Amino acid sequence: MAKKSNKLSYWQRRALEDEKAINDGAKQVEKTIVSAYRQAQEYLTQKAKKLFKRAQAKTGYEEAELKTLLNETVPVEQLVELQRLAKDISDPNIQASAKKRLDALAMKHRITRAEDLKAKAHLVARQIADVQLSESTGYFVDAIQKVYQREQANVAIQRLEAKGVQLEIWNQSDWESARSEFKQLSTKETRNILESHWHGSNYSKRIWNDTEKLAKRLEELFTVEALTGMSQQDMVKAIVKEFDTSVGVARRLIRTEANYMANQAKLKSWIDNGVEHYRLVVVLDFRTSSICQSKSKENKRYKVSEAVVNGAEGNYPPFHPWCRTIAIADFGKRTLEGMRIANDPISGKTFDLPQRATYEDWINKLRESYSDEEIAKHKEMILNRSKDNEQYRHYRSVIGKEYAPPSLDEFQEIKYNDGDEWQQLKSTYQDVKTMKSAFSDYESLVKTNDVRKLPFESNPNSVKDFFDGGKLERRRYYGKTGKPKKDIDYSDHGNPKEHREVPHVHEWSSYERDRQKKVIREKERSRSLAERIVDDWRGPK
What we know:
6-stranded mixed β-sheet; 3-stranded antiparallel β-sheet; single chain; 13 strands; 17 helices; alpha+beta
C-alpha cells in the first residue's frame, strides 16, 4: 500500500477517482447507445434513398414524380417489416406504444409509401429508446451500488482521520477485495434512486421524451411536402442533422444522469451512516461553469438533511448538465486541513493551494504569473478545443496535411494569437476550398480548328482547362457572375524573356468606362500558396 501524501487528502483523491470511474463506465454505455442511433440513421437513410432512386428510374427524378410515388399505396402486407421492427423492442411500455402505431395502420386497407416511411421512423426511434433504457438502467444500478458501498469506506476513513488517526491509502485491488465487507443498498432503495424525479422528471421519462422528439422530427421530415421540396443529398443531410442532434442529447443525458445517480447513492450512504454535513469541491480548471464557480465562492458547509438537487438553485450536485462538482462529507476542521495540488493549465505545471481554497483563489494564483488577457485566451482555447478540433480536421482535409499546422495545439496557437499567420491560413483555406469546388463544374477544351481559346463567359463558379497538343496551356476560373476571375498560364506564350515565371497568374478585374463595365486581364503575378496547393491536387497532367 502507498503511504499517505501530505499533498492530497484521502477523501479528495477517492472522490476524484470515484468520479472518474463513473465517467469511464458512462463512456462504455455511451458507445452502445450511439451505435444504436447510427444504425437507425443508416436504416432510414437507405429506405429514403430507395424512394428517390425509384423516382429517378422512372423520369430522371422530378418533384412531381416523387410526390406521386410517395402517395402511392402499398399493401397491408407491408406491415410485416414494421412488425419485425416492433418485435425487437423488449420494454413493455415502449412495445405497447409501437403496437398502438401498428394497430392504427392495420385498420387501413392500404397505406402510402410516405406513411410507411414515417412509421419506420417512429419504430426505429422506439428501438433506440429500448436500447437506451436497457443499457442505462443496468449501468445506473451498478453505479448506485458501487458508489454506496465505496462511500461507506470513505466515511469510515474520514472519521478516523478527523480523530487524527494516520491511515494508509487503499489502491483499487484493496477496495475490490474489501468490497464485500460493506452493506449493499436494497433493491427497493436502489429503485427509489433510479426512479426519483429531479427537475420535474426522471431518466426513463427523459429518454422517452428525447426519442419521442426525434420521432416527431423525422415524421415531419418524411411528409410528402417536405420530401418533394428537396434533393436526395438534401434529404440525407437532414436525416444526419436530426440524428446528430439526438446523439448529443443522449450523451448529455447519460453523463448527467450518471452524475445524479452516483451523488444520490453517496447521499443515501451518508444518511445511513450518520453523516450530518457536507461540502462542495469544484474542479479547478477553465471548464468549470460559472454556476459551480459561484458555489465554490460561497464555500459553505451544508446539512445532509437539507441537500436538494435543483439546478443552480439547489445545494447538491449536479447543478447543470455535464456538472463535475463533487460533494464530500464534512467532519469538522480536519476535513479541510492541509494543502491540495492544483493545475496550472497554461504551463502544464502544478502548485499547492490550501484545501479550503475556492475557485477564485485558484484564478488569483494564476494571476500572479499571467495577465488577464493570457488567462482569457487559454480559457477560450480549452473551452473551444472540441470545436477547434473539428475545424482543424476540415483545414487538413482541404489544404492537405503538408500545408496545415502539424497538430491541434499548433493550430490553436495560430488561431488564438489572431495575427497575420492566422489570417493567411484562413485565406488559404477559403481559396483552396473555393477553387476545388469549381471542379464540380469542370470542362476540358482541346485546341482544334474550331476551338482556339477559352470562352469569355461560362457557368458561375466553374473552371475550364485549355490544352494544346496534349499540354495544359491555361486554366480559367470563373466568378459568381460567370465572367473570368483569374487565369493560370502554364506556358511562357513563346516569349520567355517577358514571361520568366511559369506557371503564372493573371487576375481579371472590372472597371467602369464610358458608362459600360469592362473586364480586363491584369499583369501577371506569381501563384499563391492556395493556387499551388490546387495545382498539386489537380495540376497539369
